[in-house]
Specification:
147 residues, alpha+beta, Ribosomal Protein S5, domain 2, five-stranded mixed β-sheet, 4 helices, 31% helix
């Protein structure tokens, strides 16, 4: 009896970061579902955050790169908008690597994302400035009146 080889389904893991928020996305063959923390992206609140998170999906759908793909995203840390920016970066990176053939990267989709917004593929390195001595925050200082 000949041994059958199982065909492995293509699965791509990607991540996105913004401030202290981290999003990890898994892109695999499916029915076109996109879930964020086990809930459909369509019910994500607030509405502004949902629209921003769906930008890479809309661009990929316009280029017919989103058919029969399931995306599961798990995110933690940071605030609402930080998580949203991390989600959109994770989705965009996952789709670029998933739709790439043998070379690994879908150059056409990558160029479209870069033309729309560079932060879709590149993490934002900005962080909160730490508090300094003699003050209540990073910039505010106690006033001196001896001059």
């Amino acid at each position: 009896m000949a041994a059958r080889k199982k065909k492995k389904a293509k699965v791509v893991n990607s991540s996105g970061k913004r401030k202290t928020a981290v999003a990890r996305a898994t892109v695999k063959v499916g029915k076109g579902r996109v879930r964020v923390n086990s809930e459909p992206i369509a019910i994500m609140q607030p509405q502004l955050s949902r629209r921003k998170a769906m930008e890479p999906l809309i661009i990929a759908d316009g280029m017919d790169r989103l058919e029969k793909v399931d995306i599961n995203i798990h995110t933690h840390g940071g605030g609402i908008m930080g998580q949203t920016d991390a989600i959109r970066t994770a989705i965009a990176r996952g789709l670029v690597f998933y739709n790439g053939g043998a070379e690994g990267i879908d150059e056409e989709l990558k160029e479209e994302y870069l033309r729309f917004d560079r932060s879709l593929l590149v993490n934002d390195p900005r962080r909160k400035e730490p508090k300094h001595q003699l003050g209540r925050g990073a910039r505010k200082k106690k006033q001196k009146s001896y001059r």
